[in-house]
Structures are given as structure tokens and as C-alpha cells.
Amino acid sequence: MNERLTSLLVYSAKCVAGCLAVFILASVTNFKDLSWSLISVMLVLSPDGRDSVNLALTRIKANVVGAAFGTLCLLIAATNMWMISISIVMTLSVCYFLKLDAGIRSAIAATIIIMLHEEGKHVWTTAVERIVAVLAGCVLGLIITFIFHFKNTSKQPVKANAEQEA
Fold first, then answer.
1. Mind giving me the DSSP string for 56-106?
2. What is the mean pLDDT of residues 137-155?
3. For residue 90, how many C-alpha atoms fall within 13 Å in the half-sphere facing its CB?
4. How distant, in Å, are the alpha carbons of 7, 68, 103, 157, 159 from that of 71?
5. Given a cut of 80, is residue 11 above it in pLDDT?
6. What is the pTM of this model?
7. SS3 state of residue 121
8. Which of 37, 69, 79, 103 reaches 20 to 30 Å from 126, CA-CA?
9. Other CB atoms within 10 A of residue 109 CB
């Protein structure tokens, strides 16, 4: 099988595993609004196997930045186009300075997810539920990335040390 097709199959398996994990976790915890967890899982997962774990960690850090600034802007004023714009610029700036460029898009998505709320629902209830959903999706994405891409390298340094001693 060629490398491109293998990559497609692995990425498809990761996405299906993420979807199943979110639905199973939601059914166990009786969590109804699983869309944000699903989106977060998909944003953390990477189609490319190279450096997947580091990329997942970068995207999670960026999501935390996005969620933090979304929450901060909710503290400052009501959600409107200006506050969302300000929170996006703040999220972009902090991600840039923290060198989280690979996670900027998911950080912006997290910012918007946290700031928007349904009509009739209390803004803080919605924000907290979405923060939990985004973080749960990120953690599930990281676990799936580890499962698919973790290589046991602990044996290699032992061999190298044994070879040096011989």
C-alpha cells in the first residue's frame, strides 16, 4: 500500500476513534452537548503521522490560550462583534509570542466556542460547559494521538549505552 493511502487510513481511524470516544464519554457522563468536544478532538488530531504528539500538545496549549482569552473577554464585557474580535487578536498575539503557530486556528476556534452562547442560557453556565467540552476533546485527541503514534524508544538508548560500554 502506498504511503498516502496508509496515511489516509490511519487518519480516518484516528477520527473514528475520536468520534467514538466522545460519544462513549458523553453517554457515560450524561453530557448532552458533545459537538464542542467532537470539534476539539478533530482540531487536535493530525492527518500527518510525523510529529503528531508534539503537534497535538501544541494545539492543546493553543486551545487553552484561546479558552482563557474567551473567558477573560466574557469577564470584561458582553459578547459582541468587538469583544470577539478583541479576543481573537489577543489569542493570536499570545499564540504567536508563545510560538504556538501550528495551533492558532484551533485556539481561535476555542475562543469563539467559549464566547458564543445560546439564547436564553446563562453566559457563564454555557462558558464553563464549553470549556470542559473543549478540554475533554483535547485530552481525548491527545490520548488517541499517543495510541496511534507512540513508539517505545526506551529500548534504543539502552542499546546505545550497551554498545558504548562494549
1. HHHHHHHHHHHHHHHHHHHHHS---HHHHHHHHHHHHHHHHHTT-GGGHHH
2. 76
3. 19
4. 37, 5, 18, 44, 49
5. yes
6. 0.74
7. coil
8. 103
9. 19
